[in-house]
Records
---
Amino acid sequence: MTQPLPPRHSIFKKVSTKLILGVTGIFILLPLETFAVSCNFQNSDTFTEICGYLEAGEIKTGGQLNLHVSSTTPHFKVNIRRAGHDNTNLLTTSFNGAGNYGANSHTQLNWGSAYTVNIPSDWTSGIYEVSLNNGRGSYPEFVAIKAAQPGSHSKVLVLDSLPTKIAYSPIGGKSLYGFNSSNGQASSQVGMERPTGRGQWTEHREFVGWLDQEGIAYEAASMMDLHRDPSLLGHYNLVILVGHNEYWSKEMRDNWDNYLTTGGNAAIFSGNTMWWQVRFSEDAKQMICYKNAMADPLYGIDNSRVTTNWFNQPINRPENLSIGVSFRHGGYHDYTENGVQYYVKNGMYDDGSNGGFKVTDASHWIFEGTGLSNGSIFGRASGISGYEVDGALFQMVNNHPVTTGEDGTPLNFQILATTPTYAVNSPSGVPGIVYNNHNSQGWGTLGLFKPSDNSGTVFVAPTIDWAEGLQEASVGRITKNVINQLKSRTTTTDSTIINNGIGNGNTQIVLQNNSGGGGSLPVLSLLILLISKLIWKIRKNSTQEIDK
């Protein structure tokens, strides 16, 4: 999801011209400069001198980067550094022979032969910035370089969100969205080998730069690595999602779920997560997403791979089961429609929490050392609640938010903070109205849960802009607390989570341990949990019967 951006520019433009005297004595108008490179991302991010993209495939330490470049000059340099504000350049390589290619295909750009850059084997896995410079301009592309031996440097893994970045890229004239596609018509298929743009990587740059600044060791990998390798996540204790991770293949989700089931932990600092299912061509160079189940050729043939929302027919696999929340019950912060603003900081009806999160259980270990109390607001100054936020359905019980489970969210999801949102994709069909939610509106719900009895713990800060608040003391401390707590696997039940025995039919309330937070539930709360669990099972069974 996103808001419309400025209209696209034309594919080519002349920079300047000059008159020269030809052999016939006639003046002829010739270009002083070559035609400008076309890399207009239609979000105030435009590159006219040089641009490039990376070939699809595994990128790891000791391996290679294969770059394709369009440039107004044949000479250019490649500079590589770890992403982050203060990280220094690690490698510079010069090349010659670049051509000036047109961005005239959204499925296959074909910008000449690849330029190969060898990745030193002693580099540490991470998110890296690959900067192209031809003396007239520069263009930054970003890449997750995985470890040749996953988990050898750190048991904390940060995943990129490459499919989502490609989905929004308009290079070649089309994206998966109408607002930045030619003739306003989105494509159902886009090439993975296209530039992604600087703006799409903001949250990853901020987050991994902060990790390096804080001395927190991490490794990185691409979502495409997760798609290809079912064993990847098993090398880690904690897997982190950042920013905007909207597009997932069945393989990605299956591998994610299996990792959690076998005891792996996760921390989601991401919004609008796991919203669409996609497929990839066999060579992983094409991404397919019809966004309309009936239009997908696999409808009725292999419904598990139909490219629509995960919660929708015929997939019927709510993302809440895997990440605890959904965008359909969250929404936007600071949203404008027909000139009306919704949930704007300092705007009408702002209770002081718009743009930030309000604490609902300050005794929990994630708030240790923050100085926050129940009702405190954090992250508002930097607007970490935005621009898209996910939530779980909940009702208030004894002034405490309790998940209902009606949306597929595990009933042990413990809500620790909330933020108001404008639910544009509400199942009610009425934007902003979520009838079966607290106050009949959208909410972002920060908290943690276990997908099953023996799984790892999943922390959820369900907002795209979390990384932009890391320099706030409370936000940084919460993030550190989460990483420190979850970077090691445990073989015993995390007693800071309410365990309702999902998966074995036994209901059990686990009391809080000394690490703080949670506590036991009141009888009324327990009754609501039991009823909502029964409702979810009945609805699920009814849906299965309809599909038969």
Note: Residues 357 and 511 are 26 Å apart (CA to CA).
---
Amino acid sequence: MDRHDDAQANAASGRPIEDYALLSDRHGAALVSIDGSIDWLCRPRFDSPAVFGRLLDPEAGHWSIRPAAPFRTERSYVGDSFALRTVFTTDTGTAHLTDALALGPTGTGDTGTGTEQALPPASDPDDDDADDRLLLAAHAPIATLRVLECTAGEMELDFTFRPRPEYGLVTPILTAVPGGVLATGGPNRSVLSSPVTLDFGHAGATARLHLRAGDRLRFAAQTTGLADQPPATWTPEAIDAALTETIDGWQAWSGAHPPWEGPLPHLVRRSILVLEALRFQPTGAIVAAPTTSLPESVGAGRNWDYRYAWVRDASFTVQALAGAGCHGEAVEFFEFMTHAAAHYRPESALQIMFGIGGEHDLSERELGHLSGWRASRPVRVGNAAWQQPQLDVYGELLDAAWHLRGHLGRLDETGRQFLARVADAAADQWEQPDQGIWESRGAPRHYTYSKLMCWVALDRAVKFTDLLDIEGDAATRWAAERDRIREAIETRGWNPAAGAFCATLDSTADGRADLDAAVLSMPAVGFLPGDDPRLVSTVDAIADRLLDPRGLVRRYESGVDGLDGAEGSFVMCTFWLAQALALTGRPERAREAFALAAACANDLGLMSEEIDTATGEMLGNFPQAFSHIGLINAAVAIRDAER
């Protein structure tokens, strides 16, 4: 149990990332602090401007319900849901605060997105993408629910509702309406349903609440566009019903998927739920994280917007979802990627990321009015990496298709042409330098991982020849280029002195035998068998040279990405090490690495992108889909190795 005094509880824009919990309605997400403050909420989409943004600046808005006296807290999710229950205990009493983003009614249908399916579901009647799959959050009302109940003694609590639309630029006008408060200003209108009378001032809508055992207060906030009529306030009974509906919806979705039988079932189950929570309901896109500009290194400018869908996540995500039995969700995510990029022509680089609605222009800009988390400026929205050439994405797309090959039996002509163009691009471009998987903002280089994934693209395309209905000449060319890539990696990527496949080709010639944790994916993609001595040696070299004092894996050796400052250790890379150890026949060591990475989760099972090597605190955007994907895939590899 953690005790929070006033100074700590009021410290904004610097609270440890691990203190936050995720709420989701599969349209947007909120982060709630351990002391009951919603410090991040974007409406109506994951990538919309924040209505509550205190995560990044003390003046950017929040919604807080917390005891007025010193208190202790415990928190947990209600079962397999994203309804958060925080228990406040003071010297005088106990109160429960239950928070959720309302899902609305959960129906059934042939898809979880409401979009037309280009890739039909598998014919397996036992598969979970059958016609009765749940439509989770298809009718979400875009409402935030907060239910406060005193369960013992009595307690005074401070209530503050302080919306600040447009990332804190707008201070809305608050007016009383029947049953609550209307906030008007900027592009949004917010309606707060409140059972108590609130005072209005610069601090927002505030009140001192006095509760005795048995008292129960329900609050709800809805956000609409300026052109829309403000919604009516909700009755307490309607809020209770919406909360029950939300908990039941998450529980039903979780119960519709097979139980996990393998390492750390509670963390694997929560990771599967996190991927669903980060999946944008209207399209099936998965955001890399629901936040922007939580830094990889405090004060070093390594602050990025992750509220978009990366192509490279396709292979890892599909593998993780399929491994966890979520085949229908995997198909929908792959569909989104193919739809967003369907116009692609191989004369140019494939765009590496898209907006969650399929948008292409993700131009980056800085929000100079925000101070940033722990003064880590700049705060960025948009992401300039969308314009980078990153050759690995070809392999990740075609590998995702390979994992879903049982679902592609009736692939239409548009889909066939798209996958063939991706293979052509890999064949045409693999010899070019690029920015690599880690999106270096330095000079392009010949990254081994990029070449490896071009090999994957062509290897899968050759195996797909019949499905793609491709003429023999194209398949012959793909096979020839695939073999040339293998030769380049085995002769120019292998460094005998380092005893490893290095970060870039020709490291022997240029004297830079840097290591790259991404090369740990070699056994997972089938480039070499798990018992190949070079592969085993590479895994061992990375475990020796890229480990921090805590036993976690850094992405690469310092000074190779064109940015200032040193980042933390990368959670996904530690899971990659665990997966590679399992695939090279060392499940006991894999378990050890897996346990170290899993220990990076907070008390709710949520993981960030990185860990500060000095303090052990979380760094980077949160929660990070990549980390949860890594946990699932490593758990699958360990389970299979031990079998």
Note: The longest helix spans residues 472-493.
---
Amino acid sequence: MHEQKYRWKSKKLREHVAVVDGKKAPSIVLTNATYLNVHLKAWLQANIWIYEDRIIYVGDLMPDSSQDTEVVDCTNQYLVPGYIEPHVHPFQLYNPLSFAQYASKSGTTTFVNDNLMLILQLTKKKAFSFIDEMNKTAATMYWWCRFDAQTEIQQEDAIFTTPAMKDWLNHPSVLQGGELTAWPKLMAGDDLLLHWIQEAKVRNKPVEGHFPGASEKTLTKMKLLGIDSDHEAMTGADVEKRIKQGYTAALRYSSIRPDLPVMLEELEKSGIHYYDQTFFTTDGSTPSFYENGVIDRTLAIALDKGVPEIEAYRMASYNVAKHFHMEGLHGSIAPGRIANINFLADMGDPVPVSVLSKGQWIKKEHEPIEEAFPSVNWEKAGLEPLKLDWDLTIDDLQFSMALGMEMMNEVIIKPYSITCDVSGDTLSELHDQSFLMLIDRAGNWRVNTIIKGFGSHVQGFASSYSNTGDIVLIGKRKADMMKAFQHMKAIGGGMVLVEDEKVVCDIPLPIGGGMSKEPLEELIKQETTLRNHLFARGYGFNDPIYTLLFLSSTHLPYIRITPRGIYDVMNKTVLFPSIMR
């Protein structure tokens, strides 16, 4: 049983009541506050008392006891609930802590995080210890319970078991089941998935789907099987279709699906002005996409597209809390809620001048409070630098397959017949076909093929960042691929671009081989540099980082490179198995 079953123990609750009675002093009192009451959908005036991490009182009174209380005059400011990001992939080169620290400066202080990396790379005990460690920060972090690996991995049945799923769903920091990328299996009759969905529902935890392009009939079936929400709407019509059937629909603005502006325009044209079953998400975008903000950026877009201010701020806070059945803790400025409050200079500007999270100042009068986020011992948490006790050999770089993988965009890949001679140590730069290898991080197996569309001049590239945590190698020259691998190994994991056997640039990822220790501001610079180098070498799409992540992701069509081999997604078969080394 998790030791923190309750947010506040009985003794602490009695202290909260004692503050109201004047027997204890509040930690902070916000006076002359104009705040958004999300329940009345109105801006009201009040004094707000905060004790430690909780809002104690909202009303006209001032406390009887105010010894050591910080009193803040909020005249000419507008207070709204802290923003919530309901769909976070917190391992996109950044780590959960660095992302939270960055996002909180612009008002996003609560996060509902993907647990895929934790469940694939850590033992359950270490994963839960990691979650506990994240709970010690000034941000509020919740988690998903994945029911599938989103790819074809070895021994998946040993990882995704009913006891493991129940333990994850029982964890108080886990708010939902999903996202369910294996919904075709559910549709085809997989009763184990259905059982796990029912286990989530009996615990009053919603289940999130993953239904891009789903028909009305598919959405109906998924609703009958227990799915509550979906973040894959791409148009206003998609949103309408989901709301009609009782889904909560995420309005997405991400690095590969920046659909929010168009969706809002289309909803406006269709005459739909109903927002209670919608909220915003940035869907785990890559670092550089966040240069202009997180949920505050989606809010700014919504306000620009004519969404009423009160509705927009509810979408960024209360609607999320209500969906996850945690409105008693989040999403409003009211007694009993966690003290997550954003202070705005103007109702129409969602970027806060000051931010409170768990009653701590994250930012005050435009100045970030860096000590709000203490450092984490990543090695103790089980996320050490990548340590490979094996070496890549030239014999591993043998390419004889007739079937390759052709990129249609960042993430959609089709099979194609290889048209170049792949028997040598180099490939011509007159075409965009490159060597591609996925190799086990433990060194036990490899999969070799050709990828078309990643670039015509990428000589050697290595990445320990991938969907499965295994190693991706891409390039025109085997010698440069070897050099990139060796450098990636030496720095404890990362992304490395090599040309003429010299390192052009790298992004060290020493946290488990997939995450950076750098602040997001610095990581944005590193990623931008790498992206520009890849663009200059012929990468013709927008987001190479997502390409690397999704090379193995079998929830996307049509063909993938996975630990089991080259996989036909549509027919659910391994076309060419992985080779033991």
Note: The first strand starts at residue 28 and ends at 37.
---
Amino acid sequence: MWGYGDWAMVVASIVLGIFLIGGAWAVTRPQEEVMGHPKGLYMLFFAEMWERFSYYGMRALLTLYLVKHWMYSDGSANLIYGAYTSLVYITPVLGGWLADRYLGQRKAVLFGAVLLTLGHFFMAFEGDGSGYANDPTLNIFWLALALIIVGSGFLKANISVIVGQLYPRTDIRRDSAYTIFYMGINLGAAAGVLIAAYLGETVSWALGFGLAGFGMLLGLIVFIIGKPLLKGKGESPNPAKLKEKVAGINLEWLLYGVGFAGVAVIWFLIQYQSLVGGILLASGIALLAYVLFEAFKLDKEARERVFAMIFLILLMPLFWGLFEQAGGSLNLFTDRHVDKGGIPTTFFQSINPIYIILLGPLFAGLWQWMARKGIEPSTPAKMGLGIAQMGLAFIVMVWGAENFSTTGEAGAIMMPVLFLFIFYLLSTTGELCLSPVGLSAMNRLSVKHMASLMMAAFFFGTAGGNYVAGFMGSLMGEGEGGNMTREGALEAYWSMGLVALVVGVLVCFVSPLVKKLMHLDTLKDEEGDHIAGEAELGEPAAAGTHPAQ
């Protein structure tokens, strides 16, 4: 009597168990290294895997939870989703700065993991089911989101930086180490959806969110127990300063207090999503102005490289605004207008990380092979191809919905599930052409003293895209009674696809001009200009973004 969902959850649990047994075997070996890598890598692999398990398990449920449990309209749910995900991508900039300057990466990750564990457990308080207008438990929900946002700020990026610190800069194992770490990210993401989100959707919201919290707790325990495996990496740059008294309190504890104060600020902001959009826009303009101000102090070549980076950063809101429809409006569209064949809606959120696990190494090898043949596309051309594929994903899906849909129960018109798989395939190949390539470009082209600034600008572009995703989803939700209609959604997706396809082609067309601004022929290595974590292939919020010094 089992359905696809039951079998998939069992298979995901078995795969997860196999990796856990293998990880336990690796970290308990008497030797310092296992399979050519320090044991600290495997500890970080599992800590990050559990964090992604909890985050993606919760993310797959969020929009459905807002609509079905808290009874928000489609438009409001999408806007909340966009505000939440945009803040998740902004806070790592601040968390990384505090870690670089004061706390060190290990303590920042530890504090972030504590906040994340609390946040995911608070998500399990679902109230009496009377909706957001009548249930005061909604305040606990806002608190949960705020804890997760700030916790992500302290944990993300910093845990990736520690991976980089386990290896010397010239160590040839760095790329393979980040590939292993990156597999942990996407293993956790897929398992979180197939296990936690499945139980949340089919059994109870509290069970799904609670299991995500339990996964995060396991990640916290792994990180605490595994501290000796880090061999002193990721510690504070100035431990004595952390013990200095400020207003009678140790600086370290004062910084943790700042983190909790940040939770209070985010608790307020997340309830007023339009404020988040305004703050992002104003901050983005100010950051762009500052980047330009700093650029005009540089020599001609370095200045033109900054112009090239700005061009690439301005592509981020468009791509991520479309990509993140997957967790927002497309999640609702899948729930109502796709012939899923008995598969739970949340399961489709696992397709992207599974595709990344399968295709990530293939793309890494493809770029190297093309480079050896002298036919590798330039960075802007790759990013243009990524945007074009994102547009094509929507166009193919709408074409399939318009020409191959069938009539289901109660006369509902249902799109074949095949076109959803094609959508995720094209959006994933687009992501692999754009995201790791963009991260690499920020590092390669930045002068040393602007490295963190340019990566912060990259994060702002990504965060802006997440908010744009929610905003576009909210516009689609202005249909009948505040809910998205099938026709309205398909019309919007078609327009999004055409715009992205045209922009992607235009970017490819102007890529030679942008490449010329990059002055690749005169780039050279400088001592100390590498960013810890630069080699990671993973999702935008996962990359190391701060100079090791």
Note: Confidence is low (pLDDT under 50) at residues 532-537, 540-549.
